[in-house]
């Protein structure tokens, strides 16, 4: 590919002291997979550089929302930052719904799903975002062959604790929480003490970078074609 193109990975941001570790690992992995592209991180909230600042600096770019559901940031903040950048900025779909295999691998690494799973998502006030999580839980349930119940860390019900209680009331005793989250964060404090096994978050799983590249590669091919 002769044309250098900028790919901006848009992340939520967190107050957790290690909040930039996984995004940087993912960025490096994506950069290795796209050696002819410039890959940078931008933050929608809490961490700098902000997505708006990054887009103002890098020029024309493709933005990938590194979010697992299309909440307010995906539907509003990211498109608005792209539109206000003063450059030609395309925004791909978010990466949610593309990582079911990665969730299954994280469960396997933890010792397996047990006889029921709580899919622990960040939570949202937006019905469409919650519906996305329900769809992932349904797909996991079909593939794993055990009940999979969504639980929310923030903002929405049922909470992760509510979901665990429901499964216990139904007679399940080997419950595993599968964090449908991209990195460690303050959420971990909210699911401590539940007495269940907790798998690792998606983190720097290779499939995260692969999902990003799958969204970006067709656009980079179009850029190369137009520049030829």
Brief sketch in words of this structure:
This protein has 228 residues and is of the alpha/beta class.
**Low-confidence runs:** none
The portion of residues assigned to helices is 40-55%
Strand content: 15-25%
- What is the average per-residue confidence, as pLDDT, rounded to a whole number? 92
Count of DSSP E strands? 8
Structure report:
The chain is an alpha/beta fold and 228 residues long. The chain contains 8 helices and 8 strands, in the order βαβαβαβαβαβαβαβα. Strand 1 (5-11), helix 1 and strand 2 form a beta-alpha-beta unit. Helix 1 (21-33) crosses helix 8 (206-227). The model has no long low-confidence stretch (mean pLDDT 92).
Feature tags:
43% helix, 4-stranded parallel beta sheet, alpha/beta, elongated, 8 strands, 228 residues
